[in-house]
Amino acid sequence: MSLVSVSTAAYDGYGFDVILASLARCGVRNVEIAFIEGYVEAFTDEDLSKRYAAELREEMQRHGQQCHYFSGHIDLGQQDAPQRLEARCRFAAELGAKHVITNAASLTVSEQFLAHAGELAAIAGHHGVRILLENPGNRDPNLLDRAAHIEPLLAQLDSDVFGINFDVGNLLSHCPDLDPLADGLQALSQADHFHIKPCRVVPDGYDFTPLGEGDIDDACLVRHLDARNVPFSLELPFRLHRDLDAQPWRDNSPLTLDHIERQLKQSLAWMSDILS
Hints:
Helix content is 38%, strand content 17%. α3 packs parallel to α5 (117-127). The protein has a single domain (4-275), classed as TIM Barrel (Alpha-Beta Barrel). The radius of gyration is 17 Å and the shape is globular. Strands 1-2-3-4-5-6-7-10 form an 8-stranded parallel barrel, surrounded by 4 helices. By secondary structure, it is of the alpha/beta class.
């Protein structure tokens, strides 16, 4: 089986002491630590300290867990991207992760991203991590919107440092006229890692669901990932929604821990059945 992680985004609103213990109860050993603006409760770059990373790493070790992938999405075309990426790469390295997942750049600042791509690569290389660029879900035109954009984007970057994290769930809201499964399968041979994020169209926008309940054929995608031994994470942001314009919003209060665990266990059982 491919390496499968579970993102902590499912537990938005809870502390990591609660999150990691809950994941352990659900049998999760590979954890994708997520600090994603708009997806989880507010934080600052100062929160991503070496001391905090060491505490999280020790907590994971107590539960027999490890972190291979760190999600810390920012727009790498912004003026302060090198400083912000530095904080994320340092934090990921302290966690023991070898990959930092982020967005590339919106088209409005894409030239700035390409201009300082060398500096960004040097930062990642210094910390011994790779940068995995992810397609967004908010309909803001990006350097990486779909599978067809992967090859021309990577051709402009250092392939030793930059790779792709492809999120098929984001396609549903970001490219509503596209067949998300077909585009995801097109990306299979070009991506280092995938996010499996089941979601469905609802009257007021988009909701995120347990595996097996979304509008994308995640079963087909998971089988292909497993057959090719492509690693992936289950990103299940149950508290998150998108409106009709694909802009994210979150429920006012965190979901109950029992509710999250039921939906996560349901998703893990579904995946096990699919792969068996």
